[in-house]
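Quick one: structure for this chain?
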Amino acid sequence: MKRLGTLMQFKSASFTIMLIFVVSNIVNGQSKFKVAGGPKLYIGMEDVGPKLQSFMDQKNIMRVHVIYQRYVEPKGDMKVDESLLVSTIERIFPDKNASGIGIMDIEGKPAAILYAKDEDDPDYQSILNNYYLKALRIAKNTRPNVYWGYYNLPFNAFWNRTDKWKANSKKVASLLRECDIMFPSLYEYYPNSRVISNQSYVNDNLANALSLAKQLGVPVMPFVWHRWHPSNHKIGYTLISLDDFKSHVQSILSAGKGNPLFAGIVWWGYDAYLNKVKNNNLMKEVAVSRGNFNDYHDDMTLQYATEIMKLFK
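Got it. Here's what it folds into:
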């Protein structure tokens, strides 16, 4: 996402793609990842402060690491740089037998081709085989004891949740079949209103992912973010209130309740980058707190994490 600076979003689907790894891979088409003890919370922020880290340690919350697109195709030419990708994975996971969670963030033209082109289109086949599957197989070969999957696959949709959208999800089944976990995006775009129902958005997208999960034997962990999506030009990047964020997380937990392939939720964020580029919304939040960014962010994320964890029973 080039640090959120050029996040690509269309009303029909988000074209940002991330690659996530947790621990191990697929055997005979079935993910080895087992959903035990109900859905869990995972943290996908690099800017975890000491207070939040202490809370995560107490609650055994696993942390996710992100590999950004520049470590996959540094030239922006839709060509996987195998050497750079391998060295990046080895830097994050120095032990060849390492386990953990990571995310590869891929967006822009590669993701748009994967979404928009027909399955028999040469461009689609090229990006599928020479980019996504290639990167996935490099990652598996580099750290075989890690679970892998792509963020926002299957593709999400806020407005146009049509048969075509579902067909586009099924279109990438060959890629999802090689993943261990599916990570659909369930970021928030608009507050609830008379014409907008976030619950129906959550229900439809999670049902679509879980339907594919049943077919492929691959569990699901949707992504959430504590800020309104930047495609909303009025409130994009602003902090979602704690009550609204809790309600959103609860709606996902309710929609996935009882499904054995619903594995949990990944809470992602990159406020450190927004602070670096002096995002106006974040600067206002820090100013109101009368502190510095690090203290504000650590206190805010700890408060949100404390309340969110109460929902995971």
